[in-house]
């Protein structure tokens, strides 16, 4: 972990993370997660999302988020907590979208109030516990324009301002991040969009401390180290820190040695680029144990994207990263 503030792994609550009923106990998983020599940071993959934290209007529930927030004390050496994600168009509580069978009709005023209440409620509850918050997640389309989410359709870019403003007020010490996927390459429209979005917020007088690159990458078609360095250089002109927030490197199944070698190279490039970038504070893998990865559900035919196989042996990428740090 030389140079970086942390290397971490996201995790989820038992019951949410298992893709299939799983016969064994999780003692081995829990021990790896807790081991301070493995991870110095964690993120709840799901528990702080709107669906769980505000299941009915104004009614907050932090059971799922707290399960992971409490894991920072496991293993005897306190981990950093990255908090995720205050405003996102996915995994919203149903009441935000639907009332019975009908789409909820929001006005600018009512939705602004709901966003404000949600961000204040959730970020406020975790005040002092989060090293960083992904305040807004995935606000952009592939072409770098704003995603036509409910928030954008009703409020325009105002919702981004509201969210960052409310987060800054609710937890002045947390680093406030804009987080997105597919923003790891320097020349893309989406990368340009991120810079525009962050500049817009800063021009409006809002605090944005960091840009989070999710980095859900492919073993056989991944950014070069130079790409990563150049992308981060661009972001570093705008913000104090950058981070790889949801790193995984998927493989088209079946797994073989060649693909695992490409995966290892990809993981190594991320580590090398982060280590060489002054403002790159850390790397988070999106869980560490293949059976708990989101990849096979969302990208059929892909898997083995993390660092521990199902039998708890390690991917070659594990030693590859250790050598690179
Ligand atoms: C994913 C979780 O890993 C899954 O368990 C869940 O079903 C869907 O969300 N970008 C993000 C993350 O910002 O919150 C997503 O996490 C993966 C993509």
- Stretches with pLDDT under 50, minimum 5 residues: none
Report the total helices.
Answer: 12
Written as H for each helix and E for each strand, in order along the chain, the element string is EHEHHEHEEHEHHEHEEHEHEHEH
What would you report as the Rg, rounded to the nearest angstrom? 19 Å
Molecules bound to protein: (3S,4R)-3-hydroxy-2-oxopiperidin-4-yl beta-D-xylopyranoside
What distance separates the N and C termini?
A: 6 Å
Helical content stands at: 25-40%
CATH architecture identity:
Alpha-Beta Barrel
Question: How much β-strand is present in the residues?
Answer: 15-25%
The overall number of domains is 1
Overall shape: globular
CATH superfamily: Glycosidases
Query: What is the average of the pLDDT values?
Result: 96
Broad structural category: alpha/beta
| Assembly context of the chains | single chain
The CATH topology name reads TIM Barrel
Q: Sheet with the most strands?
A: 8 strands, parallel, barrel
Give the C-level CATH assignment. Answer: Alpha Beta
**Order of strands, widest sheet:** 1-2-3-6-7-8-10-11
**How many beta strands in the DSSP annotation?**
12
């Amino acid at each position: 972990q030389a140079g970086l503030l942390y290397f971490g792994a996201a995790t989820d609550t038992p019951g949410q993370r298992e893709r299939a009923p799983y016969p064994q106990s999780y003692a081995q998983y829990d021990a790896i997660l807790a081991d301070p020599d493995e991870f110095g940071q964690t993120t709840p993959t799901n528990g702080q999302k709107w669906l769980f934290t505000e299941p009915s209007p104004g009614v907050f529930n932090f059971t799922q988020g707290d399960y992971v927030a409490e894991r920072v004390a496991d293993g005897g050496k306190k981990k950093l907590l990255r908090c995720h994600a205050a405003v996102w168009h996915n995994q919203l509580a149903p009441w935000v979208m639907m009332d019975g069978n009908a789409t909820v009709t929001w006005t600018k005023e009512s939705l602004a109030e709901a966003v404000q209440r949600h961000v204040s409620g959730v970020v406020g509850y975790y005040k002092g516990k989060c090293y960083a918050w992904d305040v807004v997640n995935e606000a952009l389309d592939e072409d770098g324009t704003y995603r036509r989410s409910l928030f954008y359709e009703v409020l325009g870019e105002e919702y981004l301002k509201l969210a960052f403003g409310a987060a800054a007020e609710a937890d002045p010490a947390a680093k406030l991040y804009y987080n997105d996927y597919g923003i790891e390459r320097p020349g893309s429209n989406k990368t340009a969009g991120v810079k525009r979005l962050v500049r817009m917020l800063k021009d409006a007088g809002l605090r944005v401390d960091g840009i989070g690159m999710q980095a859900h990458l492919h073993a056989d078609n991944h950014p070069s180290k130079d790409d990563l360095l150049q992308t981060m250089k661009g972001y570093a002109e705008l913000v104090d820190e950058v981070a790889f927030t949801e790193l995984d490197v998927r493989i088209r199944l079946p797994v073989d040695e060649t693909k695992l070698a490409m995966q290892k190279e990809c993981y190594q490039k991320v580590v090398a680029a982060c280590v060489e970038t002054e403002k790159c504070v850390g790397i988070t893998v999106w869980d560490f144990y293949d059976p708990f990865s989101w990849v096979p559900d969302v990208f059929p035919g892909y898997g083995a994207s993390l660092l521990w196989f199902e039998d708890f042996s390690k991917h070659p990428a594990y030693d590859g990263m250790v050598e690179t740090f």
